[in-house]
């Protein structure tokens, strides 16, 4: 083979021949774009919210193919679907969504696109709290704030997956049981943590009304919110002023921003009320990004509890998850 020094260059025709050969080799050896037969044997499951997606992935494991539409940190209330979402719905065997109007854009798309997949409103297995929204009462969709409700959701996903793929029923049951055990332990821990907050300080002020289930389950009172249960609302200057006045009266030690909402307005409320804005934002409508302290549903509940306890004057003790069963046990 002819070699070339640094100063010598191969002839132009030889460079072109090498380039053409590489292209042909790459084309010949490219993997097929279609899924393998083993992959297509697994049912395709699509989840809307990141919370439900985390549950589905943990219960389904490697027995399903899963796609989550919303990314961590996305706000389901105001999310605008894109064409890829319609394609995902059309390819799905099962669609898991929250319901109670949490993700209105995606629900509208799902209902209008002629989707043939089975559908489960996972959040609607929980009897809702009703909230006044202008002139009518509407269900509060933020059911996952109570870990006991999370258990109901996990079990509903287990049953839907078992119906979809009966051969994997045992695996789904085992995966769900492991997650349920963690949530049961977490539920008790959360009650114990909130109980360390002085009773007159167990008051929660957040950006939007997403923590009523959490508050009722663990002994807090929602003392105020900047907006209602949907982030589609736009607070007025008068709303900001009124909330600041309520905070002064309630004497809460801190108020909370949320990861899915711009903190600018709630920061203004804190400044006008002369109260501290908690250093850690709460995970309201989405789990955190990978690697964050709230990147799974259980960790989201843990992170929120820690943020609330530390900001409101309680004594935080880290959560200890149940032992994970070893393989074969």
Q: Keyphrases for this structure?
A:
329 residues, alpha/beta, two-stranded antiparallel ribbon, 11 helices, 10 strands, 12% strand, globular, disordered N terminus
Overview of the structural elements:
- The protein is of the alpha/beta class.
- Helix content is 43%, strand content 12%.
- It is built from eleven helices and ten strands.
- The strands form four sheets. Strands 2-1-3-4 form a four-stranded parallel beta sheet, with helices on both faces. A two-stranded antiparallel ribbon has the order 5-6. It has a two-stranded parallel sheet with strand order 7-8.
- Strand 3, helix 5 (104-112) and strand 4 (118-121) form a beta-alpha-beta unit.
- It is globular, with a radius of gyration of 25 Å.
Distance between the termini: 61 Å
Question: Number of helix segments?
Answer: 11
Mean pLDDT: 88
The largest sheet has its strands arranged as 2-1-3-4
Give the SSE string.
HHEHEHEHEEEHHEHEHEHEH
Question: What's the arrangement of secondary structure elements?
Answer:
Layout: H1 12-29, H2 37-40, E1 44-47, H3 50-60, E2 65-68, H4 83-91, E3 94-97, H5 104-112, E4 118-121, E5 130-133, E6 136-139, H6 147-164, H7 169-194, E7 203-208, H8 212-218, E8 221-227, H9 237-250, E9 254-255, H10 264-273, E10 276-277, H11 297-311
Parallel strand pairs: 1-2, 1-3, 3-4, 7-8, 9-10
Antiparallel strand pairs: 5-6
């Amino acid at each position: 083979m002819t070699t070339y020094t640094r100063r010598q260059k191969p002839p132009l025709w030889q460079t072109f021949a090498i380039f053409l050969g590489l292209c042909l080799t790459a084309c010949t050896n490219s993997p097929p774009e279609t899924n393998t037969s083993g992959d297509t044997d697994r049912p395709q499951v699509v989840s809307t919210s990141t919370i439900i997606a985390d549950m589905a992935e943990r219960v389904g494991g490697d027995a399903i193919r899963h796609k989550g539409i919303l990314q961590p940190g996305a706000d389901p209330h105001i999310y605008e679907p894109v064409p890829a979402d319609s394609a995902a719905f059309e390819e799905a065997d099962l669609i898991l969504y929250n319901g109670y109007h949490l993700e209105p854009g995606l629900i509208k798309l799902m209902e209008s696109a002629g989707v043939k997949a089975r559908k489960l409103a996972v959040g609607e297995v929980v009897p809702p709290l009703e909230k006044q929204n202008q002139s009518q009462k509407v269900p509060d969709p933020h059911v996952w704030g109570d870990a006991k409700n999370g258990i109901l959701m996990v079990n509903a996903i287990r049953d839907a997956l078992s119906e979809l793929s009966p051969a994997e029923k045992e695996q789904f049951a085992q995966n769900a049981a492991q997650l349920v055990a963690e949530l049961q332990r977490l539920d008790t821990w959360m009650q114990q943590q909130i109980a360390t907050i002085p009773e007159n300080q167990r008051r929660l002020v957040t950006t939007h009304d997403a923590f009523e289930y959490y508050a009722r389950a663990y002994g807090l009172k929602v003392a105020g919110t900047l907006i209602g249960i949907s982030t589609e609302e736009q607070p007025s200057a008068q709303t900001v002023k009124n909330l600041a006045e309520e905070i002064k009266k309630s004497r809460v030690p801190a108020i909370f921003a949320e990861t899915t909402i711009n903190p600018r307005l709630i920061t203004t409320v804190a400044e006008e009320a002369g109260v501290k804005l908690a250093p850690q934002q709460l995970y309201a409508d989405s789990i955190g990004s990978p690697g964050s302290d709230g990147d799974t549903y259980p960790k989201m509940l843990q992170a929120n509890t820690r943020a609330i306890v530390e900001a409101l004057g309680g004594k935080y003790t880290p959560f200890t998850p149940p032992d994970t069963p070893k393989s074969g046990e």
